[in-house]
Amino acid sequence: MLTLPSGERLSIPNNVRIILEVDSLEQATLATVSRCGMVWFSADTISSEMCLQHLMRTLRTENIAGINNQSSTAVPSTQISFLDSIQGLVVSDDSTSTSLVADALEFALSKTHIMEITREGLLRSLKSLLVRGIAQAIEYDDNHPDFPMTCQHMENYAKRWLMHSLLWSFAGSASWTVRKELDDLLIQLSGMMLPDDDGNASLADYRVRVENGELELWSESVPRMEIESHKVTATDVVVTTTDTVRHSDILGAWLESRSPLILCGPPGSGKTMTLTSVLQSVQGVVLASLNFSSRTSPEIIMKTFAQYCNYVRKGKDIVLEPAESLGTNSWLVVFCDEINLPEEDSYGTQRVIMFMRQLVEQGGFWRDDNVWVKTNRIQFVGACNPPTDAGRVEMSSRFLRHASLLLVDFPSRDSLTQIYRTFNGGIMKLFPHLKGETDVITEAMIELFTACQKKFTPEMQPQYFYSPRELSRWVRGIYEAVVHMDQGLTREELVRIWAHEALRLFSDRLVEEEEVQWCSDKIDEVAKQMFAAINHDEVLARPLFYSSWLTKDTRRVNRDELKQFLSARLKIFYEEELDVPLVVFDQVLDHVLRIDRVLRQPMGHCLLVGDSGAGCVFVCNHFLILFRFGFHFFRLFNPQKNCLVQVCVLDEWASNFPDQSTLTLRNRRF
What we know:
The structure is a single chain. The protein is α/β, with parallel strands linked by helices. The protein has four domains: 43-221, Cyclin A, domain 1 (Orthogonal Bundle), CATH 1.10.472; 257-407, P-loop containing nucleotide triphosphate hydrolases (Rossmann fold, 3-Layer(aba) Sandwich); 413-542, Histone Acetyltransferase, Chain A; 557-669, P-loop containing nucleotide triphosphate hydrolases (Rossmann fold), CATH 3.40.50. Helix content is 45%, strand content 10%. The protein contains 23 helices and 17 strands. It has helices spanning 30-34, 48-61, 77-90, 100-109, 119-143, 151-171, 176-190, 242-256, 271-281, 299-308, 351-361, 397-400, 413-428, 438-455, 468-482, 491-507, 513-530, 536-539, 559-578, 586-600, 616-622, 641-648, 660-669, and strands at 2-3, 9-10, 206-208, 215-217, 261-264, 285-291, 309-314, 317-322, 331-337, 364-366, 372-375, 378-384, 404-407, 545-547, 555-557, 632-634, 654-656. It has a five-stranded parallel β-sheet, with helices on both faces. Strands 7-8-11-10 form a four-stranded mixed β-sheet. A hairpin with a 7-residue loop joins strand 14 and strand 15 (555-557). Helix 2 runs antiparallel to helix 3 (77-90) and helix 14 runs antiparallel to helix 17 (513-530).
């Protein structure tokens, strides 16, 4: 008898045998185990050398050039020459020793990666990069029929491309420390010399040029970029850096393999921005973006297919493929943001992930009418935070073995400098006489950001998490403060605004008075170090208040002016609404200005953190409503979809202040 999940029992005929293939029996009952024969497949059943031999045989029989030219069936000679050049490095000729690639593979498997890795997944990533290298060599020979690659040229190019591919396929999902260790191992085993022999060079700093087979610094291919002032607050501006160029090249190769790929990294590291930028630059690709949550189910995938695809009969098969209206032979790329958020069911399965795995592995699904539907020209890509973050779920290795993984960490200091020099340069175009301050203010911002990021960690308080998003908010805050200054901007005022925004970003979330004082002192220290020839005591004198209450634009104001203005407004308010006098003291004034500053900025959403009874809701309800004209305030105890539709679809601005219990419930879903 076969018992279905519904409880229905089916009789099994004598001529039927069932084979079940699983990765573990954690969810199996003893009754099931005792009634089945068992065969254990060890991971050592297939050795690494066997996998590498299969990889090389596959590459020798696949026509790489025929991927884009179906009329060609013969394997190009350039492809064979490339593989001959790396044969000894991939597969050992001596049975008593291992090859370079096998040693690198074992090293990678022994290290910690951002997500669980498998040998099959690493080799799949390696194959994709090798195919990209072979395709570049074939294209070079096709474009230079009179002077194709010589034997020495091909040998140099193939071996260096193999080293490049090994580094990013085997350590792309690991930290920079592991990448450096693998880098050193590859250089030691291969005997390859880097152009920069000062000891600080890394294989990750170079790309391989097909034109001569030599290595070239990634930094040399990064263009110097400038933006206009109004683009400073835009969210779709991507500043090209060494990191983005490097990641785009790797992602491009993996996308061409038409296999799944996942970008994993901390919040604010630029995963989604990098991946969407690469996808939008690829020809013949239609992007469908999905935002996963803890409740995401396979139905969201089917709804996406219904929107972008059509069912087509090809012979006896029913095929689901992108609609012809999207372009001939176009690919549908389903981008799953926060792909590791869906919860596991009672059997430990992420249903939507396992459905995607079936589509990738089996190439189809059973429709409701019991018809097997094949899928064609559909690819899945994803981005997520590390599985160790709150609310994240470790994805099954059965899906991850089909996906290439890339760890996108926070940008390096050089990349941060290049990014925010570009944005600060856009601001300084408003004030040409301050153009020389672009590099100074950028360096000051990064110096303070790095110091606060090192000093305050999430282990101390959950809100002590500083990502490059803080730098983006910093730049936007400075822009909003200076964009309407018709009378001009002095150097002293620029430094004062820089310090004010720094206090708001780094100090407002701090809990202990000692931490607040350290942050304030650090701001003064960095300002004195970076900004010379100004009166620091006068410029940095506390308190630093900026508000638009007294004028049409944002201006510096003092506490007494604000108190006088606020008291006058409150007098009318409590006489008409409350019949209770409201007392304005310094802490209330500080908090009102801080919240008001956030709401004035683009995408200005605010988290108020504090104990019950600390006054969060009171300040919002009774103070900000006096000054934020054009806002409608809703207090949502049970946020539902229809409430948000009323607020957003009707094109009404709203500032939502859920109470603490609702906020805690929502944080569980994050």
